[in-house]
């Protein structure tokens, strides 16, 4: 996969792209990550990329020319998804990460200041993504978040066993709890079942814990979740326990 980010602050990406899974994914050849300075595509003498809003109001607005110029130069002959980071966009989910991970080429546009000229949204982009109902200073942190979540899904990036298939949201539920050594830490003990070596029972415990955790923390995820007969029965037990408590 090739990912290009358009930003007014390219150095912000140095740390994140140069560490951990994003670095490994590049080293393995699973992804190329490129950050382009929008200012390089400004077509005026002073490399101005923003201007006052028509109609007047506080803040500056990103001009259309640099964004259009940059996208046209980068995408020559290709038709990649062009993703605008935007608090007014579709709220980002694991399902969207899985969808984007199937693409060969992605381009991210990071806004700044008060926002960007509306013609960018209307005529340049294919997707608008919000990483949550809050406002960041710029699209960079959002783009990093989306890129990280997409790249870890690419084949081979997380190693032989694709551990992300068990991650929260990938299954539709929250993931079960994890424990590691020591089995007894200051009197806080690891559940006996995990030390039993009984794989089928451990799987059942994990499945139930995943359901319990989702029921307690994110019951909204259960609304459309296709429960098995066993899961329905376990959920009813949890509901009865709640009523009795
Ligand atoms: C200060 S914000 C502009 C907010 C805009 N005035 C509004 O109210 O919708 C500047 C830029 O940060 C990015 N941004 C802010 N919040 C975001 C969010 N929740 N998700 C994705 N990008 C965000 C966008 O690229 C946005 O253009």
TrEMBL record:
Subcellular location: Cytoplasm
Pfam families: tRNA_m1G_MT
Catalysed conversion reaction: guanosine(37) in tRNA + S-adenosyl-L-methionine = N(1)-methylguanosine(37) in tRNA + S-adenosyl-L-homocysteine + H(+)
Binding site for S-adenosyl-L-methionine: 111, 131-136
Origin superkingdom: Bacteria
Residue stretches making up the tRNA methyltransferase TRMD/TRM10-type domain: 1-222
Enzyme class: transferase
Annotated Gene Ontology cellular component terms: cytosol
Keywords: Cytoplasm, Methyltransferase, S-adenosyl-L-methionine, Transferase, tRNA processing
BP-aspect Gene Ontology terms: tRNA N1-guanine methylation
EC nos: 2.1.1.228
GO molecular function ontology, one term from the record: tRNA (guanine(37)-N1)-methyltransferase activity
Keyword tRNA processing on entry: yes
InterPro entries found in the cross-reference section: Alpha/beta_knot_MTases (IPR029028), tRNA_m1G_MeTrfase_C_sf (IPR023148), tRNA_m1G_MeTrfase_TrmD (IPR002649), tRNA_m1G_MTases_N (IPR029026), tRNA_MeTrfase_TRMD/TRM10 (IPR016009)
Statement: the UniProt record of this protein carries the keyword Mitochondrion: no
Residue spans crossing the bilayer: none
PANTHER family, A to Z: TRNA (GUANINE-N(1)-)-METHYLTRANSFERASE
Protein family according to the UniProt entry: Belongs to the RNA methyltransferase TrmD family.
Function comment: Specifically methylates guanosine-37 in various tRNAs.
Subunit structure: Homodimer.
Protein name (database record): tRNA (guanine-N(1)-)-methyltransferase
Gene name, Swiss-Prot/TrEMBL: trmD
């Amino acid at each position: 996969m090739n990912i290009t980010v358009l930003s007014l602050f390219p150095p912000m990406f140095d740390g994140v792209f140069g560490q951990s899974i994003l670095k490994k994914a590049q080293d393995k050849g699973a992804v190329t990550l490129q950050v382009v300075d929008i200012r390089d595509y400004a077509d005026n003498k002073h490399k101005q990329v923003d201007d006052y809003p028509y109609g007047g109001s506080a803040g500056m607005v990103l001009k259309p020319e640099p964004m259009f110029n940059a996208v046209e130069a980068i995408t020559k002959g290709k038709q990649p998804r062009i993703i605008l980071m935007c608090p007014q966009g579709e709220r980002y989910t694991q399902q969207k990460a899985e969808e984007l991970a199937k693409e060969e080429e992605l381009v991210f546009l990071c806004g700044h200041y008060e926002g960007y000229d509306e013609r960018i949204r209307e005529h340049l982009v294919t997707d608008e993504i919000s990483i949550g109902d809050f406002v960041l200073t710029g699209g960079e942190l959002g783009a990093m978040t989306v890129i990280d979540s997409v790249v870890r899904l690419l084949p081979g990036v997380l190693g032989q066993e694709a551990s992300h298939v068990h991650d929260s949201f990938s299954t539709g539920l929250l993931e079960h709890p994890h424990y590691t050594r020591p089995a007894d830490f200051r009197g806080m003990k690891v559940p006996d079942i995990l030390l039993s070596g009984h794989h089928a029972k451990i799987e059942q415990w994990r499945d139930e814990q995943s359901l319990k955790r989702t029921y307690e923390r994110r019951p909204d995820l259960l609304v459309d979740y296709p429960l098995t007969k066993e899961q329905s029965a376990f959920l009813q037990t949890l509901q009865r326990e709640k009523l009795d408590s």
